[in-house]
Amino acid sequence: MAGFRSLARQVRDPGCDPALRRYSLRKCLERFAPYGHRATWDHLCRRHGFGPQDRDPDPARLVAALDELEEARAVWLAYERRFAERRRREKHLGLRRPGAVDDWHRRTWGGNGVARCADPSVHPDVPLAEALRRLIAALEARPGARCPVCYGRWFEWRPEAVREPWCGPVCGGCGVVVPAPALTAEALSAARRPRGQRAAGAAGADRSAPGVDRELAAVG
């Protein structure tokens, strides 16, 4: 079975048929697809201007899509190296019981679906690498009340997605299933409440802190 780098070489090979280069890019997503296979493919097609079913796409667009995917993969692999080094240090010190972030990371090793989107047609509009940088920063910081990718504050719990870690709080803005360790207990509790109760709670929060949305909008 060809690995990611071997498939990437085929995508860039001008001697290959465009259909084969497209096929190789699609196969790359079986090795690394941050939003899940279908959502990542939809994201790349939209950003780089070729159709999901296009069998003869412009090779330059395929290479541009691969460049984006490779940059995101480099971001994630760097995080995995830091994660592995930290766990080795902790085990050396006798800290062998993993925390919530460690338990979540164990189920996403390799980065496939690390920022899975519940709906393949709804995903962040920023480059893949930027979405992962934001997500990683949130995982390495204290839990927050907003989506680490788009800074949205609306979440809907998806209990029907029973395969961990894909179930959980889905951001109403960018569609990412946000890792539970990245959110506060209050945000997770709000995501589990019926939509009407969540709206009432958010309205109360807005009255108590009217400048929060404007500040975050300026940051985003």
Which labels suit this protein?
220 residues, mainly alpha, 9 helices, disordered C terminus
Protein described:
It is built from 9 helices and 2 strands, in the order H-H-H-H-H-H-E-E-H-H-H. The chain has one domain. Residues 200-220 have low confidence and may be disordered. It starts with a helix and ends with a helix. A two-stranded antiparallel ribbon has the order 1-2. The relative contact order is 0.10. The protein has 220 residues and is mainly alpha-helical. Helix 1 packs antiparallel against helix 2 (18-28) and helix 3 crosses helix 4 (59-92).
Quick summary of this structure?
Residues 198-220 are annotated as: Disordered. This protein has 220 residues and is an all-alpha fold. It has helices spanning 4-12, 18-28, 37-48, 59-92, 100-106, 128-139, 185-192, 195-208, 212-219; strands at residues 155-157, 169-171.
